[in-house]
Amino acid sequence: MREDVEALDIRDVTGNWVNAAILAREIDDRIRALADLADTPLFFGRLDFLHAPGADLAEGGEGERFYIGRRHVHDADGDPMVIDWRAPVSQSFYRASKKDPMDIGLRRRFGYTGGELTAYEDEHLTDPEEVTGASALLAAEIERPRVGPMRDIVATIQPEQDEIVRADVHGTVCVQGAPGTGKTAVGLHRVAYLLYAHRERLARTGTLVIGPNRSFLHYIEQVLPALGELDVAQATVEELVAHVPLRATDSAPSARIKGDARMAEVLRRAVRSGITMPTEGCVVVRGSRRWRVASYELEEIVRELMDRDIRYGAAQAALPQRIAHAVLVKMEQSGEAPDDRVQDAVARNPAVKATAKALWPPVDAAKLVLRLLSDAEFLAECAEGVLTPEEQATVLWPKPGKGVKTAPWTPADAVLVDEARDLVERTSSLGHVVLDEAQDLSPMQYRAVGRRCSTGSATVLGDIAQGTTPWSTDSWATALHHLGKPGSRVEELTTGFRVPGEVIDYASRLLPQIAPDLAPATSIRTAVGTLAIRRVDGSAAPEDADALDAASALAPATPPALTDSVVAAVHDALANEGSIGLIAADARVPLLGAALTAAGLGYLAPGTETTTETRLTLVPASLAKGLEYDYVVLDEPAAIIDGEADLRTGLRRLYVCLTRAVSGLDVLHSRPLPEALG
Q: What Gene Ontology terms describe what this protein does at the molecular function level (predicted)?
């Protein structure tokens, strides 16, 4: 198929160089989409239907066989050899069961090792005598060691996941997913499915995946290209609202108030604060005639625009036309017959433009927010009855900003600028947005994302138990309200496929304190020996103290024996196949990095693609969310808790770190564990 595209000659089919360039680009994209993936098979399943799909079952007839794969594959004659996993006929591969065979006589799963077909497994769904248990090939694929970025899960999608993936494009779906339930993969595969089922629409309106940080986006960036989808944009919320240069950070109380939904009303008032009512009329001179629009008429026009509550910029553009229309009415009353060209000319009249600008002045969003955060009197005027005086004092900058380029902008301030920009001019909407780790967003951040899908749909992914910001949501209904998608469907995934049962059961002991309303997750994997909890005592000196002096000065006081034991645990973990993650409190990372280097163990930063030579990643706890490793060594849980602003947030951060392991978790500590984990 790729060779056919490469052989296309477009020299005689394009009328001009523009068409030629566009067609050449589309051909290049098609070739890239058809690239070979050495370890990725083209098919992973087979369906033998008892009857041809769509045929009348009462009339009998012969069945039909389909191979299911990641991509549609046809032969030299154009006949299908492999059916795309997103096609309607493929749905039976994921949802058929003994209780509901969906007219499937045989479902076959294929097993691969390094891209080579090595096994197959059959289920005769309509045979009452056959007893089927858990799929060994399915378990092997789920548990396969991972080196490199996140992989697709098309061969292992479960029925409850498939329902979410194939949900209608017109509706927003929120997925509450416990660790290891595959919520991120479900969201990415939903994008791939929607692009397959609604390609023309989404190609026109665009799709976007929003992640919590760049490390996470690097980790997932290969999933969609592996499925042939190359044009899905990725961004963080900070990148979406990057209208001003960030130069500072907020305290937790300040960030919480700036992220509160009440700030939207404060900004609305600020944007409209410059609107004034006229004190005199507007006189328009045309030829020998003078036309006067009285002040009361101008006030009626301004109040009518205010009552319509349209975007500030749209009203600003409409005001000269409204004044011009009032002049045209007077012209008609005097016997003239003006047309649209006359109205446009009147709207451009200097007197009309000056009047409109005085009544409805232009607004620069960044300058407006700068004034709001610098001028206590202006903030008090706009926030009266919305924020208390104490809250107003909390959000004000300690030192007023002198200009947009030099002001002490924070990430929360950038979201306020984005809100103000939308109040002036509507933000463009995409066709579909996937929002991952959504539990950590503030109400104002939800609003910023919601603006990007105001006329489209969204897939919201998250876990309330993993909320690690002081403003993280406790209710998906509240989050969806702020997103502008109230009443959207909420699905809960509680069956884990990646995290071992022993690990998820241990981490779930924290749920009563961090998310009491959530049901504990269960796991299909019950292997014993995947969890080790070890207390390290003593103060043995490190082998190379000189190499660790500088790093030790940055870390909390911890027995050197713990660092030695952690390095030894990492060394032992590297004896296993797959990726290794060493997760530690951010303050402990420099010390551990120096210790690993002194021990001759190379390591990578989060988001960097692992290789067969370097499989160890040193992960600050603040960046662990969304990442997975075959084996995890977790350093000093108490330090992870201490690194957060409050106990609940610290326990939630620890819950995240405890649930990053796919095959084994080794927890080492010198300080007492939380009571729930003791």
A: 3'-5' DNA helicase activity; ATP binding; DNA binding; hydrolase activity
171 domain residue, yes or no? no
Per-residue pLDDT tens for 461-472? 999 999 999 899
- Spatial strand order of the sheet with 616-620 comes to 531-535, 661-669, 629-635, 580-584, 616-620
**Phi and psi for 125 in degrees, rounded to 5?**
-70, -20
Cα distances from 585 to residues 622, 644, 653, 673, in angstroms, run 8, 10, 10, 14
Question: Cβ distance 254 to 412 under 8 Å?
Answer: yes
Q: What residues have CB less than 8 Å from 545, skipping those under 6 apart? A: none
For range 288-293, the mean pLDDT: 91
Binding residues for ATP: 177-184
Q: Which domain holds residue 286?
A: 275-359
Cβ(456)–Cβ(205) below 8 Å: yes
Residue 296 lies in a domain: yes
**Helices and strands (H and E) in the chain: how many:** 29, 21
CB of 224 within 8 A of CB of 192? yes
> In which element (H, E) is residue 264 found?
helix 262-272
Contact assessment for residue 441 and residue 479, using Cβ atoms and an 8 Å cutoff: yes
Task: List pLDDT tens digits, range 551-566.
Answer: 444 445 567 899 999 9
The pLDDT-based confidence of 543 (bands split at 50, 70, 90) is very low
Contact present, 426 and 452 (Cβ < 8 Å): no
Specify the residue for token string 């000065």: 553
- For the record, the structure tokens of 59 come out as 């009339």
- Same structural domain, 12 and 102: no
The answer to whether 616 and 650 are in contact (CB under 8 A) is no
CA angle 114–117–123, rounded 5-degree value: 125
- pTM value? 0.86
Total domains in the chain come to 4
Q: Which residue has the tokens 């090939």?
A: 137
Is 282 found in the same domain as 146? Answer: no
Q: Which two tokens stand for residue 216?
A: 């996470």
Q: Which two tokens stand for residue 448?
A: 């910023």
In a domain, 186, yes or no: no
